[in-house]
Specification:
The complex is a heterodimer of chains A (323) and B (129).
Chain A (H helix, E strand, L loop, with lengths): L2 E6 L10 H15 L7 H10 L2 H4 L8 E5 L5 E4 L5 H12 L6 E5 L5 H4 L14 E6 L4 H7 L16 E6 L6 E3 L2 E8 L5 E8 L2 E6 L9 H11 L4 E5 L4 H4 L11 H11 L3 E5 L7 H18 L6 E4 L5 E3 L5
Chain B lengths: L1 E7 L2 E10 L4 H12 L8 E5 L3 E4 L1 H16 L3 E5 L3 H9 L7 E3 L2 H8 L1 H10 L5
Parallel strand pairs in B: 2-3, 2-4, 3-5, 5-6
Antiparallel strand pairs in B: 1-2
The chains are: A alpha/beta (323), B alpha/beta (129).
């Protein structure tokens, strides 16, 4: 596996930067530039890079959609949130609409924010494309078809011209897909969700979103530690603070940055990527979450350092070269 | 794990030590929850003396939350005192500083919860030099 590319990173509902918020950032950046020598383009770039991500960037954006670049010819995606729309546009721009491709899509579950992008996934409307949708839910196909029925949507699922298949995966069984070994894990979430462990060429990526950790017993924790064991990258649901996730938002089906760090430390994973951001969180709040999480890792470290990132739409994480 | 306790008037001070992680969480819960019962002498509340706690994980914090809920359910208070810098940061990052009251010292926590407990604690300790 070569890299992981994030097309949608927000939980529950897409969000957009508002014009007033954008203006406030521009004002802050221009004020900060006063007195600086910015005649050369390189100086401008360096100045922008010196600004915080909550000023010079934005976490976005779209709901869950993550691409795993395997090094093979097929595309591999996790979830069909609204981020799959720009992914589809990029794929067509790269290959052209007339060049058929195969897309393997692994679904964590069928809640709305994880399926809402499919009606806008243009490759599904193009003949000779092949889309294989994998998941653990019996009602996977039903859910994807139903969201495109009247009165919810004007274009029925039957309009798709691509060859679309559904494959049900059993938890704990190793499956071979697109040159990868794929294992699933049943997770705690309303209606269930599934985590995925992808392995290829000596590299491992784990996608574990919409997953609540009750912290009530060692068996639950140990199952996730083994699932994350030695992963190069763990994409992890860090929607709430620990306090909220086990008190006022208990049973809401989500986890925290704290649990992500602990599980990755125990599993000796290399890189934790905070994912499925709370839609009510402004960029500054997510930037603080990232800083807090890095600090937590630093003060609790007992083994090798754990790299910490916060996912944003457009983030690319390059996996280390294969051994 | 090592955990001791002592009653001062109507408040019990609980003193755990070491790392409060998944390996000791069950012991911590079994030791702490009976002390939240008023029969243990904690009718006004419980103070967790964390001056000897090196680290607390999410599982340990969950036990604190369970104890806090049990105390509040009967109108008592629960507080944490004497956090070491690392543990203090963990409370802040986990947002547990909004779940329980935090005091710099056991004496301050006792005085806030029960004046009688504060007096009893001061009387039981030698004056600080």
């Amino acid at each position: 596996m070569k890299r992981v590319r994030f097309w949608g990173t927000r939980g529950s509902l897409p969000v957009a930067l508002t014009a007033p918020a954008l203006r406030a950032r521009i004002v802050a950046a221009v004020r900060g530039a006063r007195g600086r020598a910015l005649a050369a383009d390189a100086d401008v770039e360096a100045y922008i890079d010196s600004l915080g991500f909550d000023v010079a960037g934005t976490f976005g954006g779209h709901t869950s959609c993550v691409e795993i670049e395997t090094g093979g010819p097929d595309y591999v995606l996790c979830d069909l949130g609204s981020g799959v729309r720009p992914f589809g546009q990029a794929a067509i721009a790269k290959h052209g609409a007339a060049s058929p491709r195969t897309y393997h899509v692994f679904m964590s579950h069928v809640h709305w924010d994880h399926i809402m992008g499919l009606p806008f996934f243009v490759p599904a409307y193009i003949p000779r494309n092949r889309i294989v949708i994998y998941g653990g839910h019996e009602e996977l196909e039903f859910a994807l078809r139903r969201q495109m029925e009247p009165p919810s949507f004007p274009v029925p699922f039957g309009t798709f011209k691509a060859d679309i298949e559904f494959v049900r995966l059993a938890p704990g069984v190793r499956h071979d897909v697109a040159g990868m070994t794929v294992t699933t894990l049943l997770q705690r979430h309303a209606g269930d969700s599934y985590g995925y462990r992808f392995e290829r060429d000596g590299r491992t990526v784990v996608y574990s979103t919409d997953s609540e950790h009750t912290l009530a017993g060692p068996e639950e924790m140990q199952a996730f530690v083994e699932f994350f064991r030695g992963a190069d990258l763990v994409v992890f649901d860090a929607m709430y603070s620990l306090a909220d996730s086990i008190s006022v938002k208990a049973d809401w089906g989500h986890s925290s940055n704290i649990v992500g760090v602990e599980l990755c430390q125990l599993a000796r994973a290399a890189h934790l990527c905070l994912f499925h951001h709370e839609p009510a969180s402004e960029d500054a709040a997510i930037a603080k979450l990232l800083g807090d999480t890095r600090r937590l890792e630093e003060i609790t470290r007992t083994g090798p350092p754990l790299r910490i990132s916060a996912a944003y739409d457009g983030l690319e994480i390059v996996l280390a070269d294969s051994p | 794990m090592e955990i001791t306790h002592r009653a001062y008037a109507d408040v019990v001070v609980v003193i755990p030590a070491g790392r409060l992680d998944h390996t000791v969480a069950d012991d911590f819960e079994r030791s702490l929850l009976p002390l939240v019962d008023p029969a243990a002498g904690s009718s006004a509340g419980v103070v967790l003396d964390f001056t000897r706690v090196d680290y607390i994980s999410s599982v340990g914090l969950r036990v604190v939350l369970i104890a806090a809920k049990a105390a509040r359910a009967r109108g008592a208070r629960i507080a944490v005192a004497g956090l070491r810098p690392v543990v203090s940061e963990i409370f802040a990052i986990s947002r547990f500083n909004g779940v329980v009251e935090i005091f710099p010292t056991v004496a301050a926590a006792l005085a806030a919860i029960s004046p009688g407990a504060g007096v009893a604690y001061a009387a039981a300790r030698p004056p600080e030099s």
